[in-house]
Amino acid sequence: MKKFIALFGPLLLVVGFATPSIASAEYAVSQRTLAPFSGASTTLTPQQKSQVKAAVDSNPSGEKFICTGIRFESAPMSENIVVRKRAKSACDFAKTLNPALSTFYQNKPTKAKSYAGKVLLTVKTPIGASEVEQDIATPQPANEDQTPSAQSEQATSSQLNSLILSLKVESEYSSGYDRDLFKHWVDADGDGCDSREEVLIQESIAPVSIGTGCSISGGKWISSYDLLETTDPSTFDVDHMVPLKEAWDSGAWNWSMATRQAFANDLAFSHSLIAVSASSNRSKSDREPADWLPTNAEYVCEYAVAWVQVKVRWALSIDIIEKSKLLALASDCGSQPLEYSPELKTAPAPSPAPAQDSGLVSGTVSPGAFCKASDAGKRGLGTNGIIYTCKVSVTDSRLRWRQ
C-alpha cells in the first residue's frame, strides 16, 4: 500500500541530523535526502548511488521503497517532469540492487526553493522487522541550478496521441450507474488505514501523525487542480482521476464487483487517486476533459496524460468528443516531455459477464416484475441492461424490480 510520511515542506530547512524511524502502530518509516545535483543532470552520481544503496541495505525488510522528487510549487511543467524523472532514477537503481523490492516514485511540490529539485527516499518497514536510524542529508545552500537525477520514459505529443488512438472509441453506456457498485475506501492490507487515508498520508508535504483508527493529524496538502492549501485533511477529497461514473459509462458496467472495487481503490498506480480540494473535486464531479479541466494551467498537460494512462491501464473506452479533446490537448502540450511511466500498464481482467457479478442476483430480471422477499434490497441486471433493485415504492408496498 502507498502509505508513508512525506517530509519535504518548509520544515526540511531544519534538518541535518540522525533521525530515528517514524513509527506507527503497524510500521516504521525511515527517510533520507539525496545529495543535490548540478544543472539539469538526470544521472545518479556515485555519491547518490551510495546513498540509495545505504537505504536499501539498512532496510532489508522494507515493505515499500518510495522516491519523491521535490519541485518548487510554481515551477513550469518542464521542471515538474525533471524531478519526477530523477525520482524514478533513484527507484530504478534501488530495484537493480534488490529486484524483489517494491518501489514507487512520484513528485510533490514545496515552497522551499532551497530544497526544490532534490529527491527524498522513504522506506516503510513493518514493525518488528527492522527499525533503524537513517541520516537525513543536510540541504546544501540554495542553488537554483542544482537538481537531483533520474531517468524516465517520456511521452511527447505524438506518443500521447498514440496512447489516445489505442483506446477503443464507443458511445457511453449511460444507464444503471450506482456509486455503491464500486466499493471504495477499503483497507486492502488490513493495516487500519483505508485507501482514502493512504492517499492523504502519502501526499502530505509535511509530517503527519497516525492515531487510533488511522486518524490523521499534522500534515499539509496542496491541491494540484487549483493550488489551494490546507492543514486540515477533512477539507480535501481524494478524487478518482477517472470518475467512477465515467468508468462505468466507459466499460466498468461490464466488470465484476471485485474488479470495480480494485479500480475504486487503485493504490498501485500513482495517477489513479489524488488528494485535491473539496471545491475542485465538486467542480469536476463526473465530467471528462471535454467538459472540465483544472484551473491550475500548469497541471493541465499532466492531467491529460494521467487521464489517458488510467483509461489505458483499465482498458476503458473513450467517446468521440472525449477523443477529440484529448488529441487537442496533446497538440497544445506540444513537444514538452509529458511523463509517462505506469507502474502497471494493464489492470486485472474484468469479468465479461455482469450477470455473474457477486453484487447482483444470478440471471437477469424483468423491470417492474414482482420479486421474492428473500431478494428484498438486492440488485439485479435487467433484460434491458439496467441495474434494478428489489424494493417497494411510496405508493406500492409490494416488492418489485425498480430503479
Strand content: 15-25%
For the secondary structure, the number of strands is: 19
Number of helices: 9
Largest sheet: 5 strands, mixed
- Round the Cα radius of gyration to an integer and report it: 23 Å
Mean pLDDT: 76
Q: Based on Cα principal axes, name the global outline.
A: globular
Task: Report strand order across the widest sheet.
Answer: 2-3-6-4-5
SS-derived structural category: alpha+beta
What sequence of helices (H) and strands (E) makes up the elements? EEEHEHEEEEHHEEEEEHHEHHHEEEEE
Unreliable stretches covering 5 or more consecutive residues? 1-25, 129-156, 336-358
Helix content: 10-25%
Distance between the termini: 36 Å
SSE blueprint and pairings:
Blueprint: E1 18-20, E2 22-23, E3 27-33, H1 46-57, E4 64-72, H2 77-97, E5 103-110, E6 119-126, E7 133-135, E8 154-155, H3 157-166, H4 195-203, E9 208-210, E10 216-218, E11 221-222, E12 229-230, E13 236-240, H5 244-249, H6 257-264, E14 273-277, H7 278-284, H8 300-313, H9 320-332, E15 338-339, E16 360-365, E17 379-382, E18 387-391, E19 400-402
Parallel strand pairs: 4-5, 16-17
Antiparallel strand pairs: 1-7, 2-3, 3-6, 4-6, 8-15, 9-10, 11-12, 13-14, 17-18, 18-19
Helix pairs in contact: 1-2, 3-8, 3-9, 8-9
Give an overview of the whole structure.
Helices cover 25% and strands 20% of the residues. The chain is α+β, with helices and mostly antiparallel strands and 403 residues long. Strands 2-3-6-4-5 form a 5-stranded mixed β-sheet. Strands 16-17-18-19 form a 4-stranded mixed β-sheet, with no helix packed on it. The chain has a two-stranded antiparallel sheet with strand order 1-7. The longest helix is centred in the first third of the chain and has 21 residues. The radius of gyration is 23 Å and the shape is globular. The N terminus is likely disordered.
